[in-house]
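Need residues for this backbone.
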């Protein structure tokens, strides 16, 4: 069992930056592929980014590529999402997720059903 707690959300102006954190419980954090998803009101939850167990591989949605960076610190049981050049369309609740599946490809982990555990989310609002 893994519990995930996101933090770092808030209100930011367009063009600004935020860093989200997701702290995981348990001693097996390094055995999970981690991902970030987001959900805007009235929309489906969509993939943002994923990172392999040791952090050597990452994959991004086209909408955030070049603006967002996913990273992890296995010693701290934490995964991060550094967001830059934020746009109003980035406004959403952001969720981190953990998957016990072995790394296959970024496309594989872009699907919600690959993940076993989810956090409660943190709200990001980007004003124009």
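Answer:
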């Amino acid at each position: 069992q893994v519990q995930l707690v996101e933090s770092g959300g808030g209100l930011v102006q367009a063009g600004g930056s935020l860093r989200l954190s997701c702290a995981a419980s348990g001693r097996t954090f390094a055995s999970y592929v981690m991902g970030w998803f987001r959900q805007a009101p009235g929309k489906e939850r969509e993939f943002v980014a994923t990172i392999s167990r040791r952090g050597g591989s990452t994959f991004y949605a086209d909408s955030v590529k070049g603006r967002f960076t996913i990273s992890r610190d296995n010693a701290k049981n934490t995964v991060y999402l550094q967001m830059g050049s934020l746009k109003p369309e980035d406004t959403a609740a952001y969720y981190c997720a953990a998957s016990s599946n072995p790394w296959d490809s970024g496309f594989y982990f872009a699907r919600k059903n690959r993940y076993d555990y989810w956090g409660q989310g943190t709200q990001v609002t980007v004003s124009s």
